[in-house]
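pipeline stage [seq->struct] | target=non-specific serine/threonine protein kinase | organism=Tricholomella constricta | residues=200
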Amino acid sequence: MPDLSIFHAYRSGVNVPGIRMVDAAAGVLGIEWIEGKSVRRLLPGGAGDDEEIYGDGIDGEENDHFTDVLKEYGVSLETLMSLIGIEIAKMHAADIIHGDLTTSNMMLRHPSCFTSSDPKIPTELVLIDFGLSYHSSLVEDKAVDLYVLERAFSSTHPDSEPLFASMLTAYAKQLGKEWPAIGRRLDDVRLRGRKRSMVG
């Protein structure tokens, strides 16, 4: 049976790939191909060994490349972080836990393949890969979802603390009154994570 969280996310106004075909008997779900790049490829440090490496290793050239790519998409790094925070907040407001939030599971649509309703933002952020997602209204589950993303940022993108903080600011603003409880629980989850790291 195909996972239904993506349907719920779509109905709740979260940007997810369009559903093209469902075969419940065969357990097949056909979704839209997103023309664009994963956020991992749009941030410094995100090109892995199996991906195209940009620049020749000279300090600053890699960052210049990523700045140029973001210009192609018509957004700044700050706007990209805001788009991420807003979509995750919309998802959590609908009580959907992604379960695998990484910058690889977020796509930015290429402006040439998208008609935006906002002239200042010619693209949109799309959350993908809901294979581990589930429904939960628990503050703990939402905080853990955010913690998984924070760890993904720190392991994939060097010096990414300000990026994650910017994303979290947009998330908090979008979520509103639900944020304080999730923010406090996120601090608890971080503390538990640090204790586990020290114990080994």
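stage status: PASS
auto-comment: The radius of gyration is 17 Å. Residues 83 and 99 are 19 Å apart (CA to CA).
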